[in-house]
Amino acid sequence: MKIAILGTGAGARCHATALAGLGHDVTVGTRDPGATLARTEPDMMGTPPFAGFLADHPGLALATFADAAAAGEVVVNGIDGANAVAALTALPGPALAGKTLIDYAVPYVYQQEGDAEHPWPTPWGVMPRLATLDTDSLAEQIQRALPATKVVKAFVTQEQQTVVAPNTVGSGDHTMFVAGDHPDAKETATALLRAYGWRDILDLGSLHAARGMEMYAHFHMAVNLALGGRPFGVKIVR
Amino acid sequence: MKIAILGTGAGARCHATALAGLGHDVTVGTRDPGATLARTEPDMMGTPPFAGFLADHPGLALATFADAAAAGEVVVNGIDGANAVAALTALPGPALAGKTLIDYAVPYVYQQEGDAEHPWPTPWGVMPRLATLDTDSLAEQIQRALPATKVVKAFVTQEQQTVVAPNTVGSGDHTMFVAGDHPDAKETATALLRAYGWRDILDLGSLHAARGMEMYAHFHMAVNLALGGRPFGVKIVR
């Protein structure tokens, strides 16, 4: 299948590599391909420059957000939460219309010590806050902004390294979640997850559930800190 | 041990019954014991009147919040989230000073259809919002209001029916979480959880983690709805 991955961060690279490995035709989208390839320093998350990654993965194509999205039958949104709605709504309508868009972003707002009245300190700085939560979610904002697109929230409950390789965590018996208002789009996401190796995929219903999936980020981070960064998954035991 | 359970709701009754069954000396606290015993209708959550419950559990005592807390060596806070800080700070200082207070409340604010711009419909009404979240938590508010008390957040990640009986869910191999700023209080909570049957108890560190534990409520509710109310637990697979 032709799949677009929007974003060049560490999570996007996981999906690009895994999907290409599964035989899909993957195009990675970025705001400005020239600028992305010219970068020689790690990004704000410490991810190495994209040019080296692309050189190591010659099967992948790099294009603008618009060209990548237009080329994809399915689109994975790996644009950071703070920029996702603006970047997606700036694309030409046909690039996303009628397509499944799988969104795994967390709408983080990075904070400094002085920004927060009650800062939650971590080894890497103050815990980010969420720009959207509780009575709305980033995924719902994207869906409202793109009514012709079929948004599925998925992947967001764990690190993308383990989303694409669930069997590397414990026995591999843990749970992945999908939510959205379009059953056929959730089936597309579920098929992709099965190809990654997921055996327990729980449909959480309408896209309202994205509120819980995004807000789960703080819980995930607390567990991540407690385990000292050791990879983990979450199994719904029933 | 002498244990106070503050609150007479369904969750509080689970702990009162289980702890009495384990041989503890349990006092249940309520705002006005006379009013609690006089009630003949189910409460807003559909829980039957307390008088009948007490008649069925003659080992339990009922007292005011202040007298129950004063009698307890350990206190379990089952007062609803909206009222917890006010009710706890109204108690005489010595009733809670130096004691472990295990808090499992979610700071829910119940909403009507018209209150919410983007209501999340459920079979029982609009999903409540959270009064405190993201950059603070109810547990931290309680800890700041009661600096001489040792607050532990626990139990909150699942229904209290299964907190007190973890082996009734799946294989019983799922995870319970504790967070707090006082290691000895977390040990007290952990010992109580082991007596309930928990084998996997993860210490999430400082009380900041209560933010994630409380915000997990929306995720829990989404899973609960997806499973049609079937009991479940969450296992951290690592």
From TrEMBL, chains A, B:
It comes from the Bacteria. The keyword rRNA processing does not apply. InterPro entries: NAD(P)-bd_dom_sf, P5C_Rdtase_cat_N, STEAP_metalloreductase. Keywords: Oxidoreductase. Coiled coil: none annotated. This is NAD(P)-binding domain-containing protein. It holds the Pfam family F420_oxidored. Residues 2-106 form the Pyrroline-5-carboxylate reductase catalytic N-terminal domain.
